[in-house]
Amino acid sequence: MDIGYRQAALENLYEIMELIKSAIICMNEAEIYQWDAIYPDEATIKQDIENNDLFIGIVDGKIAVIYVINNSYDKEHNNGDWQYPDTEYRIIHRLCVHPDFQNNGIGKITMEYIESKLSKAGIESIRLDAFTKNPYALKLYKNLGYKIVGYADWRMGRFDLMEKFLAGN
Fold it and tell me: Fewest beta carbons less than 10 Å away: which of 20, 96, 138, 166?
């Protein structure tokens, strides 16, 4: 599948929010109560865009996937027994595939793209968190070699803190 990745712009905000709303409906139907009307909200997504942290993947002119990359984390990330604490790392947040594009490998393709791009930029490791009741996300990250290094408890429940060393460095 041909996916074009680029930084999101404010003009993409409406389409991104529609993607998120569709994903929430889909997750709720699967009894994965990870996101809701409170999070991620429009103010959070707008801030991600303004910080130049939000990226989109486009397929056939439509946003198929979104993700955020930065070094920002909540204090709960301190619960992680990070295996590469002295490396240059980035954190992936809010990876979400539009339901219309799910089950086509876009999550895996996007993660491999992110890993390659970060590795080429000299980033040595990636951190993220995954909702423990989202079997699809957990399977994706496990299959890509991410290791659980701790957990964080947030409003919607428990999240595994995960980390991967990028071997290309």
Answer: 138
pLDDT at 167: 72
Q: Which pLDDT belongs to residue 94?
A: 97
Residue 126 · residue 95 · CB < 8 Å: no
Q: What whole-number distance in Å separates Cα of residue 56 and Cα of residue 48?
A: 12
Residue that has been written with the tokens 């659980």 in this structure: 148
Cis-peptide into 99, omega within 30 deg: no
Instruction: Note whether 125 and 164 are within 8 A (CB).
Output: yes
Q: Residue 142: pLDDT band by 50, 70, 90 thresholds?
A: very high
Instruction: Report the SS3 class of residue 54.
Output: strand
Q: What pLDDT sits at residue 33?
A: 95
Residue 20 near residue 96, CB atoms below 8 Å: yes
Prediction pTM value: 0.95
Compute the distance between CA of residue 154 and CA of residue 73 in angstroms, rounded to an integer.
13
69 in Cβ contact with 90 (< 8 Å): yes
SS3 105: coil
Sequential DSSP letters for 78-101: GG---S-TTS-EEEEEEEEE-GGG
Cα distance between residue 56 and residue 38, in whole Å: 22
